[in-house]
Design brief:
The complex is a heterodimer of chains A (296) and B (326).
Chain A: H1 2-13, H2 15-22, H3 26-43, H4 45-48, H5 80-116, H6 118-132, H7 136-147, H8 151-178, H9 181-188, H10 193-229, H11 241-248, H12 257-284, H13 286-295
Helix pairs in contact in A: 3-5, 3-12, 5-6, 5-8, 5-10, 6-8, 7-8, 8-10, 9-10, 10-11, 10-12, 11-12
Chain B: E1 4-17, E2 20-33, E3 37-41, H1 48-55, E4 64-73, E5 76-77, H2 83-89, E6 94-97, H3 111-123, H4 127-140, H5 146-150, H6 159-171, E7 177-181, H7 189-206, E8 209-214, H8 217-223, E9 226-231, E10 234-240, H9 241-246, H10 251-258, E11 313-314, H11 317-321
Helix pairs in contact in B: 3-4, 6-7
The chains are: A mainly alpha (296), B alpha/beta (326).
Bound molecules: adenosine-5'-triphosphate and magnesium ion.
Pfam families (chain B): ABC_tran, oligo_HPY
GO cellular component, one term (chain B): plasma membrane
GO molecular function (chain B): ATP binding; ATP hydrolysis activity
Chain lengths: 296, 326
Amino acid sequence: MSTPIVARSARYGGGRMLWKQLTANRFTALAVACVVAIVLLALLAPWLAPDSPTSVHLSQRLSPPSARHWFGTDEVGRDLFSRILYGARISVGVGLGSVLLAALAGTLLGAFSGYWGRWADQGIMRLMDILLSFPSIVLAMALAAALGPNLLNAALAIAIVKLPVYVRLARAEALSISRQLFVKAARTFGLGSGWIVTRHIIPNLLPPIVVQITLDLGDTILLIATLGFLGLGAQPPTPEWGAMISVGWKYLLDQWWYPTLTGAAIFITVMSFNLLGDGVRDLLDPRRHEEGGRTS
Amino acid sequence: MTESVLQVEELTLSFRTAAGLIRVLRGVSFDIRAGELVGLVGESGSGKSVTAQAVARLLPEETTVVESGRILFAGRDVCTMTEAEMREIRGRRIGYVFQEPMTALNPAMTVGDQLMHVIRHHHGCSRREARQRVQRALEEVLIHQPDLVARQYPFELSGGMRQRIVIALAMSANPALLIADEPTTALDVTVQAEILKLILRLARQHGTAVLFITHDLGVVSQICERMVVLYAGEVVERGPVREILRHPNHPYTRALLRAVPDVARRGEPLQAIPGELPDLRHLPPGCVFAPRCVHRMERCDTRPPLRGSGDTAVACWWSGQEVPNR
Ligand SMILES: Nc1ncnc2c1ncn2[C@@H]1O[C@H](COP(=O)(O)OP(=O)(O)OP(=O)(O)O)[C@@H](O)[C@H]1O
Ligand SMILES: [Mg+2]
């Protein structure tokens, strides 16, 4: 019972080892490279972008890719390359933000739920069952619409949609960790439950939570774009990819580069994060390892 | 006579299980005086750990039923305290050492941090002072490179080292009572002796009373002053270790002694005790040991009370008949 956790934290602790193992798989290595590049581009957008993402040049509207406008321009003449770069900031930043919010809240709720049990556990888990009973896109749309369509509310809606996964995961882990002797031992030192949950249970359930975070990133970025596309997320002129496509798809036939390049940005980003997530899961989740070993 | 730190009085305790209520302890009574080492011995399943955990109130609250009796710690009944009051006592007044040092420490925290948290919890001191106390606590349990060890995770340490850390944690608030539940069973023989010596020394040095749980009578004879023999949830004999070892009154104690190589008299053959612990759901009507007892009589079909004078007491009709032959 305790060995996997010990082994897991050992594996978890060795940063350099982790990096080595992560880049051993060719797909994962590619994903890591892409994710690093995307994050760098997002961070450096203000310096890399040739133009402001919102400055309008009506005389150059819908111009094709050129030396001046690498990705062409949109329907009001804004530089598409600049907009896509700034869009990366929004997608990656907001995506990470809402996943982390869901993970933080979910881990706390789930860990307390699992450790305390009784009515708190019952209540929290029933609530999560209700959230899980809706398809995630429908729930995200309903929540975003109810909260009011803007980027922050979209992020909040997605965090709520993602919450049950973390609560369930954290609770299941907390249940098995609570049965271990060191938790009982912590009680013999007179430590209270708040302390035991935050210092003894949560640190030991982090590895699967980290895996889940990386698995959710791609999906979340896609959800943000979807909400933006549906007009339930970022609003124009914010350079958000989904919102950009919702206008740009009309130009697919004559100015193909506009929706295509924006779509490609979404595709590459989501794919990279998904591949990274799979790679990290294969590495950190011992159960996965064993399964792989047995089936192959 | 010094004051008692712990008095367990007629404790009867049951567990709610799928198969109904199981009475695991029946009328268990013993006491521990300040600074005294008391051994609690008995076969596996006799209720030693349950007794110890009942004292620190670590048993699962939903399934444990204290049917009767009291557990007085420093004069107050542990069973009627609130959880908040109990938290004040755990760690500060009662230290606890478990059998398995491998799993008693948090795998995700360095041992230094674990000690630091517990010390700060107990003493409410600053980080810097706590760091010094961690150092001293590690030195006290004879860890030679405290700085190095403090930075290690439990999985980097040997079983003996971990048990030292657990002892340092349990002793960090200088408790009045240390409960050591088979602290050396999981360790190899050489390490066992060191850990025993360590517990003995710390207890002497700090005047800590120790409830030492073991099924090893050899260990009891080495470090304890008095002992309590538990059989199927009942105290069958208790008294000063020296007297009991020289003159065991209960047939079960005699049988236990014959089963231990270093305590059994030379020349006498080692003997396992035939039969096994009775099923707690279908206990014999009289003496619980009767089904395995070589001295069984008609009278044993009624339950023998725990009788004795002073420190010594035995629950047996047969031994009560004879005049002690010294
Ligand atoms: N939480 C529990 N619920 C139900 N039954 C329990 C529980 N804990 C212990 N028991 C039962 O109580 C009895 C006494 O167990 P205990 O652990 O005290 O034995 P022990 O004397 O410590 O044995 P060992 O030497 O193996 O540690 C056993 O029959 C055990 O199955
Ligand atoms: Mg035990």
